[in-house]
Amino acid sequence: MAVYTHVEEEELEAFLADYDVGGVRSFKGIAEGIENTNYLLDAEKGRYILTLYEKRVDQNDLPFFLSLMDHLAHKGIACPVPIRNSEGNQLGELNGRPAAMVSFLEGVSVGRPTAKHCAEVGAGLARMHVAVADFDMKRPNSLAHEGWRTLAQDCLHAADDVEDGLAAMIEDELAYLDDHWPANLPEGVIHADLFPDNVFFLNDSLSGLIDFYFACTDTFMYDLAICMNAWCFERDGSFNATKARRLTAAYGQERPYADAEIAALPILARGAALRFLLTRLYDSINTVEGAVVQTKDPMEYVRKLRFHRRVKGAGEYGLG
Fold this sequence. Notes:
Layout (H helix, E strand, L loop, with lengths): L8 H8 L7 E6 L7 E7 L2 E7 L9 H13 L17 E3 L2 E7 L11 H17 L16 H6 L5 H4 L3 H15 L6 E4 L8 E4 L2 E5 L6 E4 H12 L9 H14 L4 H26 L14 H12 L10
Antiparallel strand pairs: 1-2, 2-3, 3-5, 4-5, 6-9, 7-8
Helix pairs in contact: 3-7, 3-8, 6-9, 7-9, 9-10
């Protein structure tokens, strides 16, 4: 989440006239994240998140994202529920941008996840993967491994400014993953961005999953690999095997693994690390002037990628 587009009071009032939320008590921007403009709206009839979709988001994808949240909520997954306007539409327009409101979820994200948090996330991710079995919409992964080389070409010129030799490392990793990327694994709709700031907890129990705007159709284990990268490394860059075991074990209790999925995890973990290295590198050299947004450090994922390149098997992640 972020704030790129500023909304004036009269623009907000005109937009909310189509919604049964009552008067506005407060309205403030949310700075975290990088993709869309988000505001927290406190109204007489409840609290909501108002999102303005920026140019990086394809407007044609919005019905997929909103329908997915609606489907998951009806399946018992704790996630935001899209709010319909007086005409029954989930999507409107505000300040020249497509816009939608979703319900506000109670809870807090954690800055220093514990092993229990990791277990909660693993179970929650697996339940989401089970819940999408009868969701009939699909969306290709715009950041799948087939597109990483194109993404790299847009930012490799700046890689060695981050660390000497990084460009060569990225090129080497792209070649390796092209040769070893697994095929024919179980797939469906994945979250694709389940970082700690996209998960809420109450009393150390998971209370909600948010920010589904990278959701797409891809391999379930790739989603788990993204999650493991985000949750199982400490701030000093070290890998916490206990957290990984708790996360993967809890996932497997909700959705049992196929043998091929276990074998593929080390490659998928490398790919997930490279994907976020590249997007962070790209964002660091393509910041939007005037945007209230926090750019994230690509070096975090350089270090994670180096760790995964040394892994010999899924047993090092607690599976096997």
